Amino acid sequence: MSTNVVMKRSALPPRKFALSSIMVFGCSLLSLCFVWHTNKQRAIFWSNKCLAQAFDTSGDAKLKSWTLNLTDDSFMRLRKIYQGGRQEYFSFNLHRLSDISYLGTETNGVLRIHTKADDIIVQTYQDPKGDVDSMSTMLSIPVRNVTAGQLDSLRNTLLYLKAQ
Fold first, then answer.
1. Residues 76 and 140 sit within 8 Å (Cβ to Cβ)
2. In total, how many domains does the chain have?
């Protein structure tokens, strides 16, 4: 028993067929851009949520408020405002990220973010000892109630964002 397969030609004229093929390819490529953007946005959202929940203020009684966030343009920023008005500000681009380490237990510890060189901007404002404007290679973030799985996921997410 043999079956013959017959290929039929497209009903579209060659020019319209080529144009429709290009349109389908273009739309597919465009949709991949949105998927990448969506994945990056999800990674930023998840990282911000994780860092906000884990940030530990208990070791600094004079801390009045703080903000810690990742921005859409791949910057990590930490601002601490103390009761006397003194402010500390840390900022760096994730593309300069070198490694992430953790010292502590699941109850509390310090997340250390390392950069390739002196890439972390360190600034203080309204400091009685004088305002500081310098650079650093490590940012220490006090954290609490973070599991090993969360730390691993945070590390992988930050490395993913670094590559974007």
1. no
2. 1
Say if 135 falls within a structural domain. yes
- Rounded to two decimals, the pTM is 0.74
Domain for residue 134, yes or no? yes
Q: Encode pLDDT of 53-111 as tens digits.
A: 999 999 888 999 999 999 999 999 999 999 989 999 999 999 999 999 999 998 999 99
Cα 20 to Cα 9, 11, 27, 32, distances in angstroms: 15, 12, 10, 19
Query: Is residue 14 a part of any domain in this protein?
Result: no
Range of the domain at 36: 32-163
Helix (H) or strand (E) holding 112: strand 108-115
Residue (of 116, 40, 119, 34) closest to 74 by Cα position: 40
Rounded alpha-carbon distances, angstroms, from residue 5 to 2, 10, 11, 12, 58? 10, 16, 18, 21, 74
